[in-house]
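Below is how a single chain appears once it has passed through the pipeline. First comes the sequence as given, then the structure the pipeline wrote out for it. We keep one example in the README because the format questions we get most often are answered faster by looking than by reading.
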Amino acid sequence: FIGAGILHFVLLDFFASIVPPYLTNPDALVQVSGVFEILGGIGILVQRTRTWAAYGLIALCIAVLPANIHMAMNPDQFAEIPVVLLYLRLPLQALIIWFIWRTTRVSAP
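Resulting structure:
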């Protein structure tokens, strides 16, 4: 998550291009999501903040779902990415959410 968050700044133009057109100020949205991805990645590394960071990362995964749907519904705008990968991103989000939840749960004593 930390690396992916950093990529939001390194590849700002690409990430801004996948923001659905009905959302305003794509650069700011990408930068804000990048900051929260970095913070969430750091947060899950710290036992004390892990649960809240997991909730935040799950919320972030849900928040970026419109970008994934936009890409899948407009494959002509992303010709450099195979169409099958655009569609695989959708169930991958669910898998990532499950993985976050599963790996950050605190086990009962």
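Helices lie at 2-10, 12-17, 26-43, 50-63, 65-73, 83-104.

See the next section for the split statistics.
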